[in-house]
Amino acid sequence: MTPFNANLNSIMDTMSIDTERLPDDRDPWAIASDPRLEIPLKLRRLRQLEYDVRQALVASEEGMDGGPRLPALGEVLAAIAHVGPRAEPSSSPTKF
What we know:
Layout: H1 3-14, H2 28-33, H3 39-61, H4 73-83
Helix pairs in contact: 3-4
């Protein structure tokens, strides 16, 4: 085992969240309602989902459909507002 892997395993052992039982990353309400996740982690995961949805919308506009099924952007934004009512809007490198 390399020093990097040993350090990573040590970090993973100290994590209090069972990563195999985290909510589906494509379900914004599962992320928002998971009591095991702290608000900053919920917001980080929801912002990543928002980014993915925006990227998929741009790809779809450009005729590149066929990616994974993602929730509607409005659902993701509603979940973000629910978790962090004062959360700053994200800046996206997409057209939106």
